[in-house]
Amino acid sequence: MSLKNVSIISPEPGDGRNVVALGVVDMLAHTAKTSIFRPAVQADENLTDALLSVVSVLQTREQAVGVTLHDARLDKDNARQQIVSKFIDTNAEINPQIRVIVGSDRTNVGDPERFTFNADVSADLQSPVLLSVSSMGRTPDEIRETIDACREVVANAGTQVIGVFITDCTNSALPTLTDEFVSYDLPTWPLPLVELGSADTNVKAALDAFDEHVDKESLLNVLDTPFVPPTTPFAFQYDLLARAKKDKKTIVLPEGEDDRIITAANYLLQSNVVDLVIIGDRNEILARGEKLGLKALDQAKFVSIDDKHLLDTMVPKLCELRAKKGMTPDVALKTLRDTNYFGTMLIVLGMADGLVSGAISSTANTVRPALQLIKTKPGVSSVSGAFLMCLKDHVSVFADCAINLDPDPQQLADIAIQSAETAKAFSIDPKIGLLSYSTLGSGKGPDVDLVVEATSIAQNKRPDLPIVHPIQFDAAWSKTVARVKAFGNPIAGNVTVFVFPDLDAGNICYKAVQRTSGAVAIGPVLQGLNRPVNDLSRGALVQDIINTIALTAIEAQSNE
What we know:
The chain is an alpha/beta fold. The chain has 23 helices and 18 strands. The strands form three sheets. The protein has a seven-stranded parallel beta sheet with strand order 3-2-4-1-5-6-7, with helices on both faces. Helix 5 crosses helix 6 and helix 12 (259-270) crosses helix 23. The mean pLDDT is 92.
């Protein structure tokens, strides 16, 4: 079967949900290497051990558990980050074919958001949902309303319910509920009441009930139905780390005096994601790291801008690269006092694969050395800045939001092509929309003409790229609007790469989407350079820096 993940959650977890979990895991364990994962659990629960008794991989309880329910209740966002990280690391360790995710258990501490949290985590782990709903004390209509309400919560989280177990049914209710839901738009499987006891370890009773009442062939067919996995911000961010880790690259950090930089560096070194070169005094940075409680910083390579051996190599190379600008050894030495120039020269000399800066310095100070020393790729007229916009269930590319004030048609065409390549590098299918106040000629004017000309240039250069132009943002974004404004156009409503006509529009829009929708904006990715150099916002958080370093490493992989 093609299924990778399946999540089992319930609005009222208890014996009924546990019967479902045990039955599904046991069934799948007989078809493929099956593991379990419990995103958030009580320390004293026993269901996890019962589930581990029927899996078909060697797996410890530590590998099966994410965070405690207490931690999840206090800080759900942080818990989701930890859960995704643990899930990815555990999968790498045990390499299962199928992963059954079983939601949190019933406790005496009320948490009105628990079901929503379990739905969100299912989306984070890119899993469809098998819903378990208790029939106890409910009429068929009330069961149906409960299922419908849960499906809405799951859909809002970004994933979908693919089947429903109706649990805790009395013997007399089983045939009634089977008939009642035979025409429901999802497969349903009524299960009898099985009292497992407080220990939740009566595995045989659960498996017997499941075997007797669930048509396994129909369930396997449901689980094998094609599923388009969502990409939530948490999933995307940790996928960056996993991809960077597969082929480690060396990234230069010129701003070793910044606490955010070294805190991010410590995390990445501790997680073995990248190799790092930090520019600055080793003893001073390690002393600062010790005060911050950072334990892995000594794994970095530290380089001083006073390193005579390096300067003896860098100065003549810099003079060679800038000979047409009259660069002399004395001016080169002064230039290399700038850590961004010094760090960029480490890339030129093959000592690093990419650079991340901008937590302290300006965008211009980050980009200028790269333009002068690394230069742009062949055929590229300018560098542009794209953001990876991590929305609730997918990732889009917005460009140019950082560099070019008023791009001409040639530059706009390059931005479109560069952004498509960025999308591909991060496993996004590039469908390009060149944005305007006009959709397919609904409005006229010089700004529309610019977009039309840019598209013509881009299509001549890259006829393989799907582009819709000119198009308004709503028609590019929404399938519903596209059916009205761009009927029949296969790209409208499905755009993944949004190319803005100027910096004003791009910068305003990405920040508006970021702040009003809760999207995570990763970037800017500086596009068009021969080697990856990426800029940070001076307001960057530690997580932003971690993300940017990881995506720089992935760009370096792509350059190979």
